Amino acid sequence: MSSLIRVAPKIVPPLDPEFRPAYLGNRHFEAQAKASRKAVKMIFAIEAAAGSVTRFETLAFPDGHALAGENLAYADRIVKFLLWARGGWKVSVAGPKAVAAHLAKAYAKKGARAFDAEFMAKVYEKPAFVVRRCTLAALPKAKDTAQPVGRHLEGCRIGFDAGGSDRKVAAVVNGKEVFAVETVWHPKTTSDAQYHIDGVNDSIKQAAAHLPRIDAIGVSSAGIYVNNRCMVASLFRKVPAAQFNKRIKPIYTDLGKRWGVPVEVANDGDVTALAGAMSLKDHSVLGIAMGTSQAVGYVDKRGYITGWLNELAFAPVDYAEGAPADEEWSGDQGTGVLHFSQDAVIRLAPRVGFKFDRKASPGEKLKAVQTAFKGGRKELAQVFETIGAYLGYAVLQYARFYDIKHVLLLGRVTSGKGGDIVLATARKVMAKEDAKLARCITLHVPDEATRRVGQAIAAASLPAIKKTRVS
Q1: Model-level pTM?
Q2: Segment holding 168, helix H or strand E
Q3: I want to staple 45 with a disulfide (CB 3.0 to 4.6 A). Which of 92, 94, 217, 361 is the partner?
Q4: 166 has which bridge partners?
Q5: Per-residue pLDDT averaged across 459-468, rounded?
Q6: Percent of the chain topping pLDDT 70
Q7: How many other CB atoms are there within 10 angstroms of residue 8's CB atom?
Q8: Which of 249, 217, 219 is nearest to 236 (CA)?
């Protein structure tokens, strides 16, 4: 059965003619609801940590309308996106009764979105995920709990970046890096919590030896952090649950107690976006890293890191019936990770006859495609054109949920000649589908300007220190 949200693009990805961009589907649904002259408001209020509430307003067909059934798929995709972009454990729905009932069933224990519900309840330490219907008057009001974070360069600071294969640390004095070092470690394969604690402390000690004192420590780390506590992180996935809860969740708050200084933790994607914003001397920056997965960070129009999840690897971008499924995690179709990571390259390359070494790792397979393209396999350009088309439509979609002036593109997928094609195709798509919006958003790749403020310095700038502590 056809759906209002499955709309063919003007620029068809050469290796994925069935691609149906979420951006076009959402826009078409709203236009059709409005054209019916019977549209009703549909507003979602998403509650996250510390009482934070974000709202999203759209349109729907009223209950009983001939097209009311179309509301369900549309609402499912919007709520899914909102949860992985902003985070939340409770969804309040003001709108058609059938929509709230459908979402409650989908996010129940054995529902289609059970993975998402269980994940969000775990992140926000709630006994269960909640979906409820309420009147417009009773809908929770938006509540912004974000605080200014970052851009603090005064004093003697340490910036720590916890990566999957190495840990980086920098000693920073009044915004100038005076020492930096990388240390190889293996967090993803180590189950001993003490190994992780010792590794973090070792890096801090190395940086501390190059400072007259420590005023603050800033941490950039993959994963989801709430109030500086680690809620979910692939870095620590081998640590048993009991040890994770007791020793890893407070790993960075304990670090602050040990050193007696303020500590601020942010997701590495957010810190990358902050580094870009500091270098560009601007705000409203969305950072997208396309590598092993899709990592995203955001700095809003105030220059704040919002505390949103920004886990767009799980957010839907493709509404095609046959869109690829995320079999490793949620089981859902058409999510970002399958379109903006090395997995996308690996999925698409065989469609032009490229054969992989079966023993090669995913990273080696990506490199093999890039090397072959550089060496003259011109047909592989279609792989990067396809990803570029995905990206152009996704950026337009993201702009409906984020206030964006700049998009900073990083990661191994964007490197080399293939990356140039991804960028050029994305720009072409944006100009073709929405020239006005395209003129308001600039796509960037890292250059010397954005590299001047590195990840470690941006991390070091996260905590504020008391005015009385001067250098």
Answers
A1: 0.91
A2: strand 166-173
A3: 92
A4: 184
A5: 83
A6: 97
A7: 12
A8: 249
Q: What is the layout of strands, in order, in the sheet containing 130-133?
A: 53-60, 40-47, 90-94, 130-133
Superfamily of domain 156-268: ATPase, nucleotide binding domain (3.30.420.40)
Tokens 């809003």 appear where?
A: 300
pLDDT tens digits, 333-352: 999 999 999 999 999 999 99
Segments making up each domain of the chain, as ranges = 22-133, 156-268, 274-451
| Nearest by Cα to 437 from 459, 471, 405 | 405
| Helix segments in 141-189, DSSP class H | none
Dist. CA 239–CA 320, nearest whole Å: 38
156-268 against 274-451: fold identical: yes
Tokens of 434: 């929405």
pLDDT computed for residue 1 by the predictor: 44
User: Rounded to whole angstroms, how far apart are CA atoms 407 and 405?
Assistant: 7
Cα 173 to Cα 170, 207, 227, 367, 388: the distances in Å are: 10, 11, 26, 38, 40
Let me know: does 309 contact 297? Beta carbons within 8 Å. no
Report yes or no: 123 and 267 within 8 Å, Cβ to Cβ: no
The pLDDT confidence band at residue 447, using thresholds 50, 70 and 90, is low
- Judging by beta carbons within 10 Å of its beta carbon (0-12, 13-18, 19+), is residue 136 exposed, middle or buried? exposed
pLDDT at residue 452, as a whole number: 47
Match 């190994």 to its residue by tokens: 195
Q: What mean pLDDT is predicted for residues 40-44?
A: 98
